[in-house]
Fold these 2 entries.
Entry 1:
Amino acid sequence: MKKYQSFVRVITGLFKRAVIESAPNLSIEVTSVCNSKCVFCPNAIMRRPRQHLDMGLYMKAVDEFAAMGGVNISFNCCIGEPLLDPHLLERARYVKQFPQIKPVWFTTTLQWLHKFNMDEFFNSGIGWLVISTMFLGRERYKSFFRVDCYEQTLNNIIALIKENEKRQTKIHLNFSLKSTGESNKEIMDHPDFKMIDTLMGGKVRQGLDNSSLFVDDWCGAVTLPKYLRKRPIYPRFFRPCRLLYRALHIFSDGKVGLCSCRDFEENSDLIVGDIKKDSLKDLWNGPKHARLVNDWCRKNVISVICRTCRHYVY
Ligand code: SF4
Ligand code: SF4
């Protein structure tokens, strides 16, 4: 079924006319610090500095984004765990003052939720979390995330679900379930899965339906374990990745790029500027962005990083 859906997406994508959106979605790498070393992530080999984004630069970016009419901000990091950012709640509260901007969301392992005061966490304006995790016991968790944080994570998930039940303003929870090659039946039979799925009213199973053993290998930088398979490299002749039409990404050192997820060393030609000296509007409407899209569209000149990227979006 999934193969069929991917095929249909690719074919219909070929006929859709892509237009650069007037205001992008903005993803902000609030921190590039992450304690995990997930088997499918280049965190363990990343050489750039691990740091939290300066608060002044962050505010400049949000102010400029709001002035552009932007509405979607996420704290999704290229590499990084947002809950390890000491300014996380301050940042969410800052966004909240702009009514046009939707509540922020981000992906997290939730390993560090216990460090936060729950009243502050829920009142900060965080609207949605994608929890990247598994419910298959400590040893399998350790072998995938390569940290010994299973019980801590499980307790945090239970605490968050229970807090959510108590509160009027809820945080929307999604699960991005990982496995080490187990069948859906084996996953669903695990007592921890059953417990969390029951607490969530059966919604975790939906995450299981959406999970996939097909992943990207970051242009060959990551050697995947045998139970994960590489996504196919879809044809992209004259058809720029959709991210180039709709997203800007601010890295934790202030650099601004067009790819929010694969340029893990920030050293590709998709880096268009730096929030320290450039305005977001100028970068989004600027000549470098236009050239990258037009070169791909009209001459099939594709940025090196995009040529073999398995995360390419139609
Ligand atoms: S996938 Fe996310 S949680 Fe895992 S190592 Fe990479 S940055 Fe950290
Ligand atoms: S093709 Fe890959 S590297 Fe290029 S913009 Fe899309 S996701 Fe990023």
Entry 2:
Amino acid sequence: MPVEKIEVLVVGAGQAGVAMSEHLGRAGVPHLVLERARIAEGWRTSRWDSLVANGPAWHDRFPGLKFAGDPDAFVGKEAVADYFVDYASKIAAPIRCGVEVTSVQRPADRPGFRVETSQGPIEARYVVAATGPFQRPVMPPIMPETAGIVQIHSADYRNPAQLPAGAVLVVGAVSSGAQIADELNRAGRRVYLSVGPHGRPPRAYRGRDFVWWLGVLNKWDVEAPPTTDHVTIAVSGAYGGQTVEFRRLAAEGLTLVGRTSSCSNGVLGFAPDLGDNVRGGDMDYLSVLDEADAYVARNGLDLPQEPQARDLPPDPACMINPILSLDLKAAGITSIIWATGFALDFGWLKVAACDDHGQPRHRRGVSAEPGVYFVGLPWLSRRGSAFIWGVWHDAKFVTDHIVKQRSYLAYEPATPPLDTTQTSAGLSAQVRSPRHQPNPSEAIR
Ligand SMILES: Cc1cc2nc3c(=O)[nH]c(=O)nc-3n(C[C@H](O)[C@H](O)[C@H](O)COP(=O)(O)OP(=O)(O)OC[C@H]3O[C@@H](n4cnc5c(N)ncnc54)[C@H](O)[C@@H]3O)c2cc1C
């Protein structure tokens, strides 16, 4: 049976794969998107039940389609997934679901790539990895498996009822950890929250959501995280959207602890950094207010004053006398949720696109292996790259690059090159080779 051929193969049909399909389609580039599960599967099955988007509906979307309903609302995760299904249908994206890409290799004897899939091989001239920014859950090896204690990653958390009765320790307090801990606390659980360094922009200030402020202050387009002291931000659209305020969570019953650092004989150790971490978050929060005020003044905007936004709640007891160690049994902890992030896994990409540690080698998604591209990675080109509104722009850049490469490859000189050959008589003869006529169908050979 002849092997299926395609010009561009996009791997993954989350938002990154759908964005690639939109731009490739507009540019008239033949392509196919392979998705091992369903469109936007991550939003359906790798998120907790109550998750809503971190940004309001007017912002967390692609330019070509609005969410139905209130543009200032925070859309639920199923509606986000439905949005991408609708988007794919609107642009007639050539997506094949239920097909897993298992390897991509470069054949020695011809250009392009041989792609092995769960439904047979495909040959592609270009491959775009759109397999997500958060691929493999990471749990630091601090706590050995211990009888009577359930340990899960935040990617596997669904709702409070899933956990055995008893207290819960949530490790990690950026967006996922802070929201999960808040939900468990509201459900009446005794909750400990291990807080590391973080940023925490105000949910809204002077009548504008933080996504607006980060937009006008040009922070979504910052091109690279600072090499040192970069921290992830804690934001939440839950309960109508509230600033993540750890002192408020403590006042509502949750116990804050510093970074989880060790475990010995069922006793967890915490770094003495809780105060520093919370105050570091405060500085980030206050710096956004300062920059917002300066922007309002400089641009003469008529936005309401909000001085009370600078009033921070008093330090709770758990900050004044921080807990540095905790006997899990004595504290009644029966579950630990590790909200400790994700790693990338490009084991299927068997070409020189990643370094020795498996990290993608690329610039703005154009990989070190010609013909291989990445979209959707954190900080691919800027802060917004792994988010809904950012990936669309990165996908456009990557598509433009592919279009340029194709035009180079389609080039034929107007004057055919001279071909120098040796005659049988030992004389050198210069012969003009017949001019090769470009044939679009050959582009994928
Ligand atoms: C808890 C959480 C909340 C978030 N909230 C927001 C938010 O509110 N707003 C926002 O803008 N961003 C948010 N994000 C960040 C980001 O938008 C999501 O992670 C989003 O799912 C990334 O989209 P993606 O297409 O890059 O990757 P994914 O959604 O992960 O899509 C990758 C796809 O590739 C498929 N795939 C993987 N490997 C293969 C293979 N070998 N063969 C075939 N298919 C494969 C997967 O099945 C998957 O469908 C959130 C992330 C998390 C974890």
